[in-house]
């Protein structure tokens, strides 16, 4: 019956279906409450070092029970006390009777609550950044491989001048590189709330240290360092500014917009049969249409990316309604919006890594699409060649205009192939350049500096960005479909 109970209540698909174990653990109760205990240990150690009457035995007792959280007892305490932090203070004190008088000494609830959130945000970025680096690496390899392969460019989703498959991938890469810098900056800008007291004035700690301001500042510095942060915010209310959450989630929402654009492009190209995401040998695309190969991974990314972008409104509104030193209407919202943003970004990056490791290109289809459009694009080249051969530009322009209209009618009204080239070849007017036509219609002459742009962009901007993550590049993604 217990196994069945699991299916009797809602489970977030972000955890049950999608996100990695490491990100799911990062926002778990186990991580949260053991971090609270470590923060109480850091506080006691620093207070002892600065002269408060705390013993080694008390600290050792706390350390020996840092990980054995009695969740049932904590839940029962919270039911009685209606206060989650005090419930865990009592639960910790129960297994640490000698240390009970000094647990949470001088602190307010946000000492453990906010500082733990900052640790989770920092560690969440530490999980995401290598994943983003791997996506960029796989896509950079793809761009390099196809740097020279001409393909139709599209503006307004209408055929435009040629680009290359690799150059198009660099448009995706440029956005991802911006996201990498944004995530890294948001990570590096994070500070610790530290030891600030009830309204951020450190009054309780100043009283504990009998008015010694230097000791209060040193306490803040020591705990910040023990928690692995280089700096603490110099001013806070009861909480750290909720604009910090805005800053963090903005970088993730921006990543969501990038991934949505990339995966929409892949879906459009899949419809053209030019590029496809990887497809398992026994994977079924449609229950009704056996021939279908739906871009389900890209669709999943787009679906989740919309949620990631939508979550951005939560921290913006929360930051705007924090009255004076704080109100508690941030708490329930942040329990949802902070973890969900990181969990969503996590599965998006894992899925995108899987896609970019197995993108399939169909050069013959790409070539056919180019052949259908290139004759129209080559008209300027034909006119220039005729002028060099001594013909009048206006006369040539009119000849080409008439033949182009006729060819367009075949394509649009009859559903035929573009026969402009055949019409040019049949017209004696173009005899002077007949031997040049193949060269004038070589797709590689229509891509401009795309291959050179790819090479320079990858070497100057992309590869250097990946240097700090070299040791983590070989991780493969086992994607559950």
UniProtKB/TrEMBL annotation:
- Quote one Gene Ontology molecular function term: (S)-2-(5-amino-1-(5-phospho-D-ribosyl)imidazole-4-carboxamido) succinate lyase (fumarate-forming) activity
State the Pfam families in the record: ADSL_C (PF10397), Lyase_1 (PF00206)
User: Is S-adenosyl-L-methionine one of the keywords?
Assistant: no
Which SMART domains does the record match to this protein? Answer: ADSL_C
CDD domains xref list: Adenylsuccinate_lyase_2
Residue stretches making up the Adenylosuccinate lyase C-terminal domain: 374-458
Q: Its annotated pathway? A: Purine metabolism; IMP biosynthesis via de novo pathway; 5-amino-1-(5-phospho-D-ribosyl)imidazole-4-carboxamide from 5-amino-1-(5-phospho-D-ribosyl)imidazole-4-carboxylate: step 2/2; Purine metabolism; AMP biosynthesis via de novo pathway; AMP from IMP: step 2/2
Keyword list, A-Z: Lyase, Purine biosynthesis
Major enzyme class: lyase
- Please give an example of a GO cellular component term from this record: cytosol
Q: Does the keyword Lyase apply?
A: yes
**Which parts of the chain are coiled coil?**
none
The record lists the catalysed reaction(s) as:
(2S)-2-[5-amino-1-(5-phospho-beta-D-ribosyl)imidazole-4-carboxamido]succinate = 5-amino-1-(5-phospho-beta-D-ribosyl)imidazole-4-carboxamide + fumarate; N(6)-(1,2-dicarboxyethyl)-AMP = fumarate + AMP
Q: Tell me which SUPFAM superfamilies the record gives.
A: L-aspartase-like
Enzyme Commission designation: 4.3.2.2
The GO biological-process annotations, alphabetized, read as:
'de novo' AMP biosynthetic process; 'de novo' IMP biosynthetic process
Give the PANTHER family listed for this entry: ADENYLOSUCCINATE LYASE
Q: How does it assemble?
A: Homotetramer. Residues from neighboring subunits contribute catalytic and substrate-binding residues to each active site.
User: Family, per the entry?
Assistant: Belongs to the lyase 1 family. Adenylosuccinate lyase subfamily.
What functional role does this protein have? Catalyzes two non-sequential steps in de novo AMP synthesis: converts (S)-2-(5-amino-1-(5-phospho-D-ribosyl)imidazole-4-carboxamido)succinate (SAICAR) to fumarate plus 5-amino-1-(5-phospho-D-ribosyl)imidazole-4-carboxamide, and thereby also contributes to de novo IMP synthesis, and converts succinyladenosine monophosphate (SAMP) to AMP and fumarate.
> What protein does this entry describe?
Adenylosuccinate lyase
């Amino acid at each position: 019956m217990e196994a069945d109970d699991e299916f009797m209540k809602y489970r977030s698909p972000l955890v049950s279906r999608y996100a990695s174990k490491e990100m799911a653990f990062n926002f778990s109760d186990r991580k949260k409450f053991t971090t609270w205990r470590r923060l109480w240990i850091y506080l006691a150690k620093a207070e002892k070092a600065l002269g408060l009457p705390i013993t080694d035995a008390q600290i050792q007792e706390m350390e020996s029970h840092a990980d054995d959280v009695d969740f049932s007892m904590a839940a029962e305490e919270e039911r009685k006390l209606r206060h989650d932090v005090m419930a865990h203070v009592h639960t910790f004190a129960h297994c640490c009777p000698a240390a009970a008088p000094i647990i949470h000494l001088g602190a307010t609830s946000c000492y453990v609550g906010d500082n733990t959130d900052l640790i989770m945000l920092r560690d969440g970025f530490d999980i995401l950044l290598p994943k983003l680096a791997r996506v960029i690496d796989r896509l950079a390899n793809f761009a390099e491989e196809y740097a020279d392969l001409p393909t139709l460019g599209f503006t307004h989703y209408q055929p435009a001048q040629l680009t290359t498959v690799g150059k198009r991938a660099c448009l995706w890469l440029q956005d991802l590189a911006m996201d990498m810098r944004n995530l890294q900056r948001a990570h590096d800008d994070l500070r610790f709330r530290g030891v600030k007291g009830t309204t951020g004035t450190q009054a309780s700690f100043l009283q504990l240290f009998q008015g010694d301001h230097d000791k209060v500042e040193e306490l803040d510095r020591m705990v910040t360092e023990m928690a692995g942060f280089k700096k603490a915010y110099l001013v806070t209310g009861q909480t750290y500014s909720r604009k910090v959450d805005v800053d963090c989630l903005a970088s993730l929402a921006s990543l969501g917009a990038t991934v949505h654009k990339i995966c929409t492009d892949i879906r459009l190209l899949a419809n053209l049969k030019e590029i496809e995401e990887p497809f398992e040998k026994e994977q079924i695309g449609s229950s009704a249409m056996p021939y279908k190969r739906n871009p389900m991974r890209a669709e999943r990314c787009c679906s989740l990316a919309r949620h990631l972008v939508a979550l951005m409104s939560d921290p913006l509104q929360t930051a705007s309604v924090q009255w004076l030193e704080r109100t508690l209407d941030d708490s329930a919202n942040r329990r949802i919006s902070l973890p969900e943003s990181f969990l969503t970004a996590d599965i998006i990056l894992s899925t995108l890594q899987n896609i970019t490791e197995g993108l399939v290109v169909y050069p013959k289809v790409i070539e056919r699409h180019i052949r259908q459009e290139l004759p129209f694009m080559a008209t300027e080249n034909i006119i220039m060649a005729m002028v060099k051969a001594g013909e009048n530009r206006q006369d040539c322009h009119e000849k080409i205009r008439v033949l182009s209209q006729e060819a367009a009618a075949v394509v649009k009204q009859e559903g035929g192939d573009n026969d402009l080239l055949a019409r040019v070849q049949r017209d004696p007017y173009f005899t002077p350049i007949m031997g040049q036509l193949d060269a004038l219609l070589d797709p590689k002459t229509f891509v401009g500096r795309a291959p050179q742009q790819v090479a320079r962009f990858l070497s100057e901007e992309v590869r250097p960005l990946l240097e700090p993550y070299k040791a983590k590049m070989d991780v493969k993604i086992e994607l559950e479909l």
